[in-house]
């Protein structure tokens, strides 16, 4: 004789299924709705992964050197001249923290004046042979004079001094504004190919590492840092092909109430089955 109710025997005794899980969960309509929900959540999870990778790429590019203009050309030429004389040269790149949120609080004209004030304050603290230029976005590159001590401690003191100057409050059109900045720097003796362009890019890579450590961080360039950056770029370029091959899929983890056995929620994760790196 068929059971009168799922989860009970013919005599009305509840089975193990009835004790552990509400039998309504396994009805045909709820099951169909559940599958549809799983599919929707999977699409959301995959889309979120793509968005996060795209955002990471945007963050890497926001302090990319602006390779046009006399300022850029003069800085690179000066770095190259110092390098040909055998000097150890240091370049630093500084970026205003959380500038997107700052741009939401003030109008574009105020933000432009603020960045000009940052540039003026930065230049006022430099020596005669130091060179500073504005990069794309709220970032600045500084080529330190070859006469400066290129050692790690001396450079850290110099960059920390820049941070202190820029952290003092600004007043733009009567509005007090405070900012913090992160910084990265690189010394030419740490580069396999010490050119002016490579030095600025190495300092930019160090800045990207500093941004990941939180506002107001300072990082010095190393070869290991560059290897990590190249690995991240490689993964970013592989996302599209991985999605087309189906290597990125949604995995679902049910959340069950231990007391009642009911499914109370679902955790969704986008998992990448990478052919070389594994899951």
Itemize the secondary structure elements and their pairings.
Blueprint (H helix, E strand, L loop, with lengths): L15 H5 L7 H34 L8 H15 L5 E7 L2 H7 L2 H17 L6 E4 L4 E5 L8 H16 L2 E3 L2 E3 L3 E7 L8 H17 L5 E3 L2 H23 L2 E9 L6 E10 L7
Parallel strand pairs: 6-7
Antiparallel strand pairs: 1-3, 1-6, 2-3, 4-5, 8-9
Helix pairs in contact: 3-7
In words, what does this structure look like?
The protein contains 8 helices and 9 strands. It has helices at 16-20, 28-61, 70-84, 99-105, 108-124, 152-167, 196-212, 223-245; strands spanning 90-96, 131-134, 139-143, 170-172, 175-177, 181-187, 218-220, 248-256, 263-272. The protein has a 5-stranded mixed sheet, sandwiched between helices. The chain has a two-stranded antiparallel ribbon with strand order 4-5. Helix 3 packs across helix 7 (196-212). It is globular and about 75 Å long. Residues 1-33 and 54-69 have low confidence and may be disordered.
Task: Give a quick precis of the structure.
The chain has 279 residues and is α+β, with helices and mostly antiparallel strands. It has eight helices and nine strands.
């Amino acid at each position: 004789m068929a059971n009168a109710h799922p989860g009970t025997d013919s005599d009305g005794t509840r089975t193990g299924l009835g004790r552990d899980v509400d039998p309504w969960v396994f009805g045909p309509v709820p099951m169909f709705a559940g599958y549809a929900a799983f599919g929707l959540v999977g699409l959301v999870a995959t889309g979120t992964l793509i968005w996060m990778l795209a955002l990471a790429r945007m963050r890497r590019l926001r302090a990319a050197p602006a390779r046009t203009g006399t300022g850029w050309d003069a800085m690179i030429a000066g770095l190259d001249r110092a390098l040909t004389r055998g000097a150890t040269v240091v370049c630093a790149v500084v970026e205003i923290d959380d500038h997107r949120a700052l741009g939401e609080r003030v109008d574009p004209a105020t933000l432009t004046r603020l960045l000009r004030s940052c540039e003026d304050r930065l230049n006022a603290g430099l020596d005669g042979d130091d060179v500073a230029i504005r990069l794309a976005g709220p970032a600045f590159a500084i080529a330190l004079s070859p006469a400066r001590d290129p050692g790690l401690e001396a450079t850290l003191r110099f960059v920390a001094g820049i941070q202190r100057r820029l952290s003092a409050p600004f007043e733009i059109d009567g509005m007090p504004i405070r900012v913090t900045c992160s910084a990265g720097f690189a010394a030419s003796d740490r580069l396999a190919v010490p050119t002016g362009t490579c030095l600025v890019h190495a300092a930019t890579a160090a800045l990207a590492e500093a941004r990941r450590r939180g506002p107001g961080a300072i990082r010095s360039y190393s070869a290991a840092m560059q290897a990590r950056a190249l690995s991240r770029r490689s993964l970013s370029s592989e996302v599209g092909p991985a999605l087309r091959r189906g290597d990125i899929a949604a995995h679902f983890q049910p959340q069950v109430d231990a007391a009642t056995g009911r499914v109370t929620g679902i955790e969704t994760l986008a998992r990448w089955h990478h052919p070389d790196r594994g899951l």
